[in-house]
Amino acid sequence: MSIKLKQLAAHLGLSQTTVSRALNGYPEVNEETRQRVLEAVRETGYRPNKAAQRLATGRAGSIGLVMPVAAGIETDVHFSSFLSGLGEAAQRHDVHLVINPSSPEEEETTFRRLAASGNVDALFIAHVRREDPRIPMLRTLQIPYMVHGRAIGQGEDYPFLDIDNEGAFYDAARLLIDLGHRRIGLINGQEQLTFSIRRETGMKKALLEAGLPVEDLPIDYGFMTDEFGYRAATRFLEATVPPTAILCSSTVIALGAVRALNRAGLKIGEDVSLIAHDDVLPLLKPEHFSVPLTTTTSSLRAAGARVAERLIASREQPSDAPPEQELWRTELIRRESTGPAPRVPRSARI
């Protein structure tokens, strides 16, 4: 049988008001009391009445996102991993997630409707595009928000969390150049997404600094699936001058690229070097590839948890507080999939 607030308060020897304020994060409740209440909640299985909580605090107890859905739009394991981190943090704080599906052309309207509904306390956006119209739109809403990623070409005067995608692929390309590679391919995410743009920029920056050409590089863009990785890598290998190294925007893409290299009878790390970005997906460990994979690494799950923590905290911040911005560096982990460039290009051996 579920326990009620009155019973929980009696069990603790506290007033119902104190227990309610402890559960809702009011600063006047000291930390020792708050921890006593939380421990009792865990022991008794108490679940607050959301409707009553909303009346008492003026909060919905939810954070919201708009998920674009349409033919040709795929929800992949990367976003699922991000949502897992988001959900874990929300659960710790007893906050709900509200996911509102929308056609891509109706996204801004859906955000406005969700904000006006009063069903969420904060909003966030992901899959950021170059000049993303959703960001200036969110600024006009009377609700906390943040961005997972950064736009290009419209300033950065908004709260965000992003990884240093340009720096990650600069470092990866720099490693390959130091190993003697002069023609490097890139199998990237969708062309309009800013993480893809920045990763390509980072790779090209390293090539230009080394005095290497960036015209006519083998580059392909698409949904980050193993099938896309396989098709793109196959096209690269069939070129008149194939690359001696390939950068992949995810380990899922790399899975397909490995299949293409194996089918072509090429040795990874010897004939062709391979580096991927690792989002720390639970079922795809780079060290478990047939040839352990060199990676740039940053956890999407951790990013999701951090986004949730910040959105929940934003409910307490004054509306004129400066936007909090985080740019996470990635870690370059070298494994056996990268080695010196072959002395004789494969096209010259045929």
Percent in strands: 15-25%
Succession of helices and strands: HHHHEHEHEHEEHEHEHEHEEHEEH
**Which blocks of ≥5 consecutive residues have pLDDT under 50?**
none
Please state the overall shape, judged from the principal axes of the Cα atoms.
elongated
The total of beta strands comes to: 12
Instruction: Count the DSSP helices.
Output: 13
Roughly how many Å apart are the termini?
76 Å
Helix percentage range: 40-55%
Structural classification: alpha/beta
* Major sheet description: 6 strands, parallel
Strand order of the largest sheet: 2-1-3-4-5-11
Radius of gyration from the alpha-carbon trace, in angstroms: 24 Å
Mean pLDDT: 89
Can you characterise this structure?
41% of the residues lie in helices and 16% in strands. The chain has 13 helices and twelve strands. The strands form two sheets. Strands 2-1-3-4-5-11 form a six-stranded parallel β-sheet, sandwiched between helices. A six-stranded mixed β-sheet has the order 7-6-8-9-10-12, with helices on both faces. Strand 8 (245-248), helix 11 and strand 9 (273-278) form a beta-alpha-beta unit. Helix 1 crosses helix 2 (16-23). The termini are far apart. The mean pLDDT is 89.
